[in-house]
Amino acid sequence: MPNSPESGAPAFAAKMILMAVFLAISTVAVAQTNRPQGAAPDTANTKSGNAKTANARTFDPRDFSGVWNPAPYMQPKGEVNPIDLGGNPIPLPPFSPAGRATYETNKKFIAAGDVTSCDPYGTARNFFTPRPFELIKARDRLLQHFESYDNWREIGTDGRNFPTDLEPDFMGYSLGKWEGDAFVVESKGYNGKQFLTWQGFPISEGMHQTERWQRVDRDTLKILFTFDDPANYAKPWSITFFWKLKDWQLDAHPCTVSQLKEWDERVGHVDGLPGLDYGKPDNK
After folding, report:
1. 273 pLDDT more than 80
2. CA-based, 20 to 30 A from 7: which of 24, 155, 171, 221?
3. CA atoms within 13 A of residue 229's CA, in its CB half-sphere
């Protein structure tokens, strides 16, 4: 029997509802398709949008991966400034008498335009330069690539101990462990042939360096350094320093013979100290 107008009304209404739903879905799909590639949905005024924004700011406090640039302006006032450009930092570390004498000798050497060699800077001096470093997480170690002179450092993270036959080295031997969200690094085994900072603070083979790393927020790395070197300092002393996360790639900055030659010729080697004097005739 043919449908009456009354019996056809529910079916017609159902069809209209389905058509409205289809049009709504199509409109959303078109809007998403027309959004510029890579653009995020406009969720600024929604609860889900606020949640996504908060998630974007979260970070893993145990992940230091990335390139970190020094932020000396964040160092607490009153501490020894490891990159003071005046050459006469105040305050000075608590030198022992021998350490103070070595420091004064080193200062004269630096003021004369010292050029020694392409030896690695060592861990502390590499930290305290105006150049960044990159941290790369590996299975059993943390790799630290310093832009200055392209120096590398390995920090063991697998629970190993210091070798019993540790050979002194420019970069020392470093081990790290976690204490909560602080990464504590112990370093020793230095050869004493480098400066602690560019100002000429001395290092002995017996120096024990401790670092306490903390990622205090997504973009900020804080490290508390403690230097224990009885041959040069009357007591252990500390420096607090900060770095900022950057979306950078490290520049190539090797130390080469040509660079040393250029520097040696530019300063004219008038200091009267032993040096390299590349390309100059022997004195007769």
Report:
1. no
2. 24
3. 33
Q: pLDDT value at position 254? A: 82
Look at the pTM and tell me if it is higher than 0.85: no
Q: Which residues pair with 238 in a beta bridge?
A: 226
In this prediction, residues 150-155 reach a mean pLDDT of: 96
Say which amino acid occupies 190. Y
Residues 119, 274, 276, 83: is their CA dihedral positive or negative? positive
On whether the CB atoms of residues 29 and 21 are closer than 8 A, the answer is no
- The DSSP bridge partners found for residue 210 are 186, 226
Sign of CA dihedral 71, 77, 79, 80: positive
User: Rounded distance, CA 217 to CA 220, Å?
Assistant: 5
Q: Give the CA angle between residues 268, 270, 276 to the nearest 5°.
A: 70
Token representation of residue 117: 């060699």
**Average pLDDT of the segment spanning 157-171:** 95
